């Protein structure tokens, strides 16, 4: 693969920036990122994203082929590997030749048998939280250079932005749902006990405190027992 020209890089990055702002699913944006990685970074034969979920659960997403998912599974099995290390610790994890890689002996031996000889992983940041890693793999050794790391870092930033936007959207939906349910419960209390909205909310709040139960759970109980 020939080196991408600066103009091509700028155009592709601008396209990715627009996709993050568009109303698309986070999975679609991540697929754009991994596709761009194989398009823009020489030696990147396949790419994927490893996310770290609640409780340390790992999720393999947006693979340009099935291979990244297979490699993620190997890391879960061996509890070692570059993608996990980038997700949890290092900012950039680079392997020029897995045949000579000693940091993850079991994983390295397995990927060489598959035909993967090089890897490049980038930590994904979402504000003060780590979401996972963007991972590139090559079938030839010694393919990565400083430019590959620079492009990968920018692509990882796009992926992290998409993940953060998705999480913020989920939090907003949850907050709106909570507000609506409390409002509905307050209306039921106002009707049932002939009180105003301030008194109704105070009744819900007091019940929450006295029963050591979350206000949203109290509101849900009121809604479920209506009538």
From TrEMBL:
Domain ANTAR positions: 162-223
Domain of life assignment: Bacteria
Entry keywords, A to Z: Kinase, Transcription, Transcription regulation, Transferase
UniProt keyword Ligase, yes or no: no
Keyword S-adenosyl-L-methionine annotated: no
SMART domains named in the record: ANTAR
Gene Ontology molecular function: kinase activity; RNA binding
SUPFAM superfamilies assigned: CheY-like (SSF52172), GAF domain-like (SSF55781)
Protein name per UniProt: GAF and ANTAR domain-containing protein
């Amino acid at each position: 693969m020939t080196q991408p020209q600066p103009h091509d890089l700028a155009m592709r990055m601008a396209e990715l920036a627009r996709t993050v702002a568009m109303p698309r699913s986070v999975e679609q944006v991540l697929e754009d990122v991994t596709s761009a990685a194989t398009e823009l970074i020489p030696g990147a034969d396949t790419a994927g994203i490893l996310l770290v979920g609640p409780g340390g659960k790992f999720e393999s997403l947006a693979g340009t082929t099935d291979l990244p998912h297979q490699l993620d599974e190997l890391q879960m099995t061996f509890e070692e590997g570059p993608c996990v290390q980038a997700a949890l610790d290092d900012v950039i994890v680079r392997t020029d030749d897995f045949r000579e890689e000693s940091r993850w002996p079991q994983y390295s031996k397995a990927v060489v048998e598959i035909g993967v000889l090089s890897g490049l992983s980038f930590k994904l940041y979402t504000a003060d939280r780590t979401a996972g890693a963007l991972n590139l793999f090559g079938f030839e050794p010694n393919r990565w250079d400083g430019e590959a790391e620079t492009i990968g870092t920018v692509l990882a930033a796009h992926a992290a932005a998409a993940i953060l936007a998705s999480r913020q959207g989920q939090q907003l939906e949850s907050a709106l749902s909570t507000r609506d349910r409390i409002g509905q419960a307050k209306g039921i209390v106002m009707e049932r006990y002939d009180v105003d909205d301030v008194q109704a909310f105070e009744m819900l709040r007091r019940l929450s405190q006295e029963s050591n139960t979350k206000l949203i759970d109290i509101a849900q109980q009121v809604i479920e027992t209506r009538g």
